[in-house]
Write a structure and sequence with these properties.
- Helix 13 packs antiparallel against helix 14.
- Helices cover about 80% and strands about 0% of the residues.
- The longest helix is centred in the last third of the chain and has 36 residues.
- The chain has about 325 residues and is mainly alpha-helical.
- The chain has one domain.
- The N and C termini lie close together (about 5 Å).
- It has a two-stranded antiparallel ribbon.
- The radius of gyration is 20 Å and the shape is globular.
């Protein structure tokens, strides 16, 4: 039997996790900066075509926000009842602000808001949020596998095996967990194979637009990566970026860009581009969240569940 406090962990554990994230972020950047002197990084940032870069990356973030809210609207309609697209814009934007500091807290805040808005149990909405996360990973794995078929290097074949394992794991979620009657598995129990496929396809434009934008935006930093190679490894980078193990998702993304693409561009340029892309994406989403926060903040605060309530057994 678990209560809210047990699910979130003790304050000591939370502090240890934060400290570990800080240490890991510092360690990754310390290793990277051993290869990249700061003057070289500053020069790469200074010499970039900033106007072209921003003209591509900012609209990409706006499109991501709009389409991400559309995906949320469709999935909520499937499993909990219809909600207007415009009503979900504030909470989707606000969750980005919370998620910047803590990914899981951002997801929990969104589930709490939706639970209050739809008068549905919190864990049932939590199940839908987890469903969205897993289908996001599924579509990234599928994009990576598509790239692997067309880019046959040794590292690609190794990643193909890993991607295949992850895909099998995700596809087995419904059959392994859904039969259980727990509320946290409700969405997986109700989801049909057709809906799994539909949501993966519905997410496709988000990645396609981001892929094309990153391909051209990299040129602004003098980076020219073959399109097939970018298709193969960008999904892997996005998956690494989503892991809540570093501060503000920094470090893992930059290390991945250097690891996968150092044969195509100098390391200082790759580091400069990955940092700039991350900063623009995060800051644009944060600005959107701040703009929408007045209309979502009250509901988000009031929808936090009572920590003393027993959630499941």
């Amino acid at each position: 039997m678990f209560c809210g406090r047990d699910l979130e962990g003790t304050p000591v554990r939370s502090q240890l996790q934060k400290a570990a994230a800080v240490l890991l972020t510092v360690a990754i950047f310390a290793l990277i900066l051993r290869r990249v002197p700061f003057p070289a990084l500053a020069a790469a940032l200074r010499d970039a075509d900033h106007a072209t870069f921003l003209a591509l990356m900012i609209p990409n973030t706006l499109f991501y926000f709009a389409w991400d809210t559309l995906v949320l609207t469709v999935v909520i309609g499937w499993f909990h009842g219809p909600v207007a697209y415009r009503d979900l814009l504030p909470v989707r934007a606000a969750s980005y602000v919370v998620g910047f500091f803590n990914t899981n807290l951002g997801r929990g805040a969104m589930a709490a808001y939706l639970s209050r808005r739809l008068q549905a149990p919190f864990l049932e909405l939590g199940s839908t949020v987890i469903f969205l996360v897993l289908t996001e990973y599924t579509q990234l794995v599928l994009w990576a596998m598509l790239g692997l078929f067309g880019f046959r290097a040794e590292v690609s074949r190794s990643l193909f095996a890993a991607a295949g394992g992850v895909a099998i794991l995700w596809l087995g979620i419904r059959w392994l967990l859904a039969p259980r009657a727990w509320a946290i598995f409700r969405t997986f129990r109700l989801a049909t194979p057709a809906r799994y496929a539909t949501i993966v396809l519905l997410r496709a434009p988000m990645f396609l637009v981001s892929l094309v934008v990153h391909y051209h935006a990299a040129h602004a930093f003098g980076i020219h990566i073959p399109f097939g190679t970018l298709l193969t490894f960008l999904p892997v980078i996005f998956m690494l970026a989503a892991l809540p193990i570093t501060v503000a998702h920094l470090g893992t993304t930059q290390a991945a860009w250097i690891f996968f693409f150092s044969q195509f561009a100098p390391v200082p340029r790759l580091l400069a581009f990955s940092l700039a892309a991350h900063l623009v994406f995060s800051s644009t989403r944060a600005i959107l969240g701040v703009l929408w926060l007045p209309s979502a903040y009250g509901d988000l605060i009031r929808s936090v569940p009572d920590r003393s309530i027993v959630t499941t057994s």
